[in-house]
Design a protein that fits this description.
8 strands; alpha+beta; Sortase, Chain: A; 1 helix; elongated
Length: 255
């Protein structure tokens, strides 16, 4: 009986030890997964996106002329330079350089967005697929929306967490902050106008040609214009809702 009791206790101890080892192993695997998602994917995507920006600039023939260092556009720099007029309504009192007209192929990086307030520089690619665009650290262009500088709404999406997370801090943007979009021929300057802190992931009105929330109609616009829309997931580390930032085109110049 004594030996039987000792045997059962030995088996129980061995079972507890094995269970503890499995728990530790599982914990390490979860930790490695978290590190991969929160650190490694950001490291890899940011490096790849940075190389893509450099490649685009080389292809375009060098970096554009320096922009103002202030995050907010000074009043005296709102006027745009000479050049052919944009299609449709123009920014008040302005003539602008030609907008991007050719349609990029799917997943192609064809522009660069710079957001000085939150220190973001990222490629803009056609489409919003995860594997082909967003998980590379790129900002994705909603294909049904306008191209940079065109009348309508140039609508973009980007990750808020992991894979480069270019839009992680767009909730910190303030009215008047610059959103600079560079293409092969033209540099467009938009300024932040308003923010919709939270809406449904299915709120298609936010990226319409005249953007206005279908869920919260008090947010948005009622007149045609040259808009830009930034969309990302909210709250952080979830994909339940969408955060939306809108801006308006105020300036453009040739590269």
């Amino acid at each position: 009986m004594v030996q039987g009791g000792r045997g059962r206790r030995a088996w129980a101890a061995r079972g507890l030890w094995t269970g503890a080892e499995l728990a530790v192993t599982l914990g390490l695997l979860v930790l490695l997964l978290v590190v991969h998602q929160l650190w490694w994917t950001n490291r890899e995507a940011r490096a790849a996106a940075g190389h893509t920006v450099q490649s685009l600039e080389r292809e375009w023939g060098g970096s554009p002329r320096p922009a103002p260092t202030s995050a907010t556009v000074p009043d005296e720099q709102v006027a745009v330079g000479d050049g052919p007029a944009l299609d449709g309504p123009q920014p008040t009192g302005a003539r602008a350089a030609p907008a991007t007209r050719s349609t990029p192929r799917g997943d192609q990086a064809y522009a660069v967005i710079r957001i000085p307030r939150i220190s973001v520089t990222a490629p803009v690619a056609q489409g919003i697929s995860k594997a082909g665009v967003l998980d590379k650290g790129y900002v994705g262009h909603y294909v049904q929306s306008a191209q940079p500088g065109q009348a309508g709404n140039f609508a973009l999406a980007g990750h808020r967490n992991t894979h480069g997370e270019p839009f992680r801090h767009i909730d910190e943007l303030e009215r008047g902050d610059r959103l600079i979009v560079e293409t092969r021929d033209t540099v467009f300057t938009y300024v932040v106008d308003s923010t919709l802190p939270q809406t449904s992931a299915r709120d298609g009105g936010t990226i319409a040609a005249i953007p206005r929330s279908d869920v919260k109609p008090s947010y948005g616009y009622s007149e045609p214009g040259h808009y830009i829309t930034l969309t990302t997931c909210t709250p952080e580390f979830t994909s339940t809702y969408r955060l939306v930032v809108w801006g308006k085109l105020v300036a453009s110049r040739p590269r």
